[in-house]
Model the fold of this input.
Amino acid sequence: MSTIIQTSPPAAAQAAEEEPLVSVVIPCLNEAENIEACVHAALEAIARMGAYGEVVVADNNSEDDSARLAEEAGARVIVERRRGYGSAYMAGFAAARGRYIVMADADLTYDFNEIPRFVAALDGGAEMVIGDRMDNIRPGAMPWHHQYIGNPILTGLLNLFFRTGISDAHCGMRALRRDVLPRLDLRTTGMEFASEMVIRASKANLRITEFPIEYHPRGGESKLSSFRDGWRHLRFLLVHSPNHLFIVPGALLAGLGTLIVVLVGAGLEVAGRAWGVHALIGGALLMIVGTQVLALGLCAHAYGTYFMGEQDPWFDRMRSRFRLEHGLLLGGLFLLIGVVMGAIILATWIAHGFGSLSDEQLAVIAATLMIVGIQIFFSSFLLSILGLRRR
Done:
């Protein structure tokens, strides 16, 4: 649970009556070396704006004097005992009272003098504002593998999957209107929180703006784990993109498998040679696995739509056109063709006096069609069950 440490922030009497224009939320974990400077810089930036604002430090159960130092510097301190970058921010967001929320880390990597620019962008109509560090990284501020490998790859994948158009999806200095938080429905507790914000903002069609900012060398010890946190970001991107995780690979596998089965089953030559039963088994395997992956992708879409409030125009069109009965008919057709082929093999075997079977290729095709038919049939029922969540 999050607990609020009682503080005496600036303009406490005014705070009881007036909504702050801006809340600067700073997550903090063992940042005693830097937190006072961060709080002072944020308060000074707010004062230069001539606006009423506050600084909320979301202390992530620090083991040093970070919370006390932040409070003495003039911040309102929230203690979030559940560790995690996302956990700290969600506690800070819940405590923030400003119309606008500006986010920045407690390690001196970001210049708090940029706060007025973020507020001005929100005043200008943006609903989320993100800094772009990539062309203004001071020497020694970012490890080379983050600058040239990790961040570009993860940002590129995020833009490929979700078409956000963001240049630096993991910048820690950003701002948003507090009233859009319910639409974002943020949930992740770790470093992937940065990716989640961008993805959910894109899916919610928020007006997103970005502009260049500088990135400075951090003070104190870094809490970032390159491979663990990089994997958590990648995992989050894949889990929230069923099209790229399931649908596209599944369609490619099933399509290639079907092509191989048709060509080999028809006895056609490919690359100047005829392919036998082993190629047919390979094609059957691809067809079966591809169908299963496609079914998982459709179920993932259904779960996201009915239980997580996700919206996907492609899936919405599919579910408006197709019903349970369409899936049952398609699965039943595949199953029926497979059974008929199996019956032909059985009849031939009986006619030849129960001797040796020599219809290996036909048997592989029949078994494949029956398996695919069963997959489609029962996956259709599962999609229908998930659809019971619809209102």
In short: Residues 277-307 form the longest helix (31 residues). The radius of gyration is 29 Å. Residues 192 and 235 are 9 Å apart (CA to CA).
